[in-house]
Amino acid sequence: MVQAIPPRLMKTQSFLPRTGVQLVLTATTSLFLLGSLSARAADKLEEFETELTLDVEPNSHEETKIAIVEDPSAPGNHVLKLSWVGHRGSHVAGNIKGNNVKLIEEPGSYKVTARVNFEECETDVQSLSLRVFDSQHETFQFTVPVEHAGEPGWHEIAWIISTDSPDTGGVVSWGEHVNKVCDLPLRFLGFAAAFKGHETKGGAILFDDIAIERINP
Description:
Blueprint: E1 2-5, E2 21-24, E3 43-46, E4 54-56, E5 65-70, E6 78-88, E7 91-96, E8 102-104, E9 109-117, E10 125-133, E11 138-145, E12 154-162, E13 172-175, E14 186-195, E15 199-214
Antiparallel strand pairs: 1-12, 2-13, 3-15, 4-7, 5-6, 6-15, 7-14, 8-14, 9-12, 9-15, 10-11, 10-14, 11-13
């Protein structure tokens, strides 16, 4: 789900790993946040205004970078930046290292959103994924297509997570204990960008304002 949104003013307050089992389910994933909560209505989770320990996934190109930087369109506002150089490869990904923050603690369906800027992307970026992991260290990847590569401005991107049926919408799962079940709680792991034809000319994606909303009772 993609929705164009206007530029944001300064905030008021400062694919797949080689290891483990891989499992392709049937559909719709990485999220950065602080604080522990069970989402209710549109809870803001992360604005990237505090220091975080970030880590590039080992399967990414060696010159891939992830960092918190100043928003070029709003001085004083900070955003997450995932960047990479031109190379042949399926994807790049970045995580919060040692992240123990709970994303979802109760069963249900949730919408996770982020403001994303694709201005520095080439059209070789095919999809954007949110990654989470459960209490048994099974990682789930939820993916949406990228429709605004190279376009200026910020867009709202949404991923749907259903803890009762995580095997819908092209979800990929891997880990030490793969059972296709979201063993709660779910915790945020990171973001991944996949490339068309396993090749990219290089680029960068900016992320801001991660939020979550429960969409069923």
